Fold:
Amino acid sequence: MNHPTKPTPRQGIFAPNSHLFSLGMDAVFRALADPTRRGLLDELFKQDGQTLSALEQRLPMTRFGVMKHLKLLEEANLVVTNKRGREKLHFLNPVPIRLVHDRWVSKYAEPWAAALSELKKTLEEDGMEKVFEIYIKTTPERLWEAITDSELRQKYNFGVGVTSDWTAGSRYEAAHPSGVDIAAGENLEVDPPRRLVQSFTALWSEDVKREGSSRVTWEIEPVGDSCRLTVTHDQLSEDVSDEIYGGWPQILSGLKTLLETGESLTTPGSLLYAGATESAD
Structure:
């Protein structure tokens, strides 16, 4: 299967210092303030990976109008695009919603945080591909290390570490210190510190085991003194359980926090398995 062309980087959105992060949040709230743009997100909520022509047919406006609103959504990082042949597909990106949750909502009311988490899980029900994007102030080498080093991985991945020799064709295994196997698969492509493609089979319950194998692609692109990380989870069945892909926004938020501050997230979801991890240690 051909890999999608990477979306054009958006400078300054969710950049790592507080001033630029605030600018990124301003772009998100500004984008969400318009009912037409919310309508576009609703359409991608219902069916992800749509072309401009498909979205144009669903809204009572000109093609130019739809393009203008999509541009603002892309600048806010709420929509990311991938090219497939001659088509440009638009995907709903839940990571900014996760960042809003991590910075503000989880401080005040866990039920609200749970509601946002549930929204995040149901953002994309019909598509066979999920795309997640985030900017992190770090080097490609440090980011690659955080993805492949088991001890670092545990700090942002619900306590789950991963073991492998990280060569093309090798096997990897992800497990929680409590003894629960989480996932396993093959490293299909290994190109440090730029690209990692893996098959992915979930193992944490009988239900997810029945989902079979899918594919996860990590793509790292330098942007100034930061990196744009795009995670594409594809080759998913049409009726895939949201358990398979629903945790990505929180994992990526935790990765960003770790590399930029040296600390772990303290949101309710992030702390869910902390006790089990500490007990295992």
User: Anything to note?
Assistant: The radius of gyration is 18 Å. DSSP finds eleven helices and nine strands in the chain. The mean pLDDT is 82. The beta strands are 79-84, 87-92, 130-136, 161-163, 171-175, 181-191, 195-202, 213-223, 226-234.
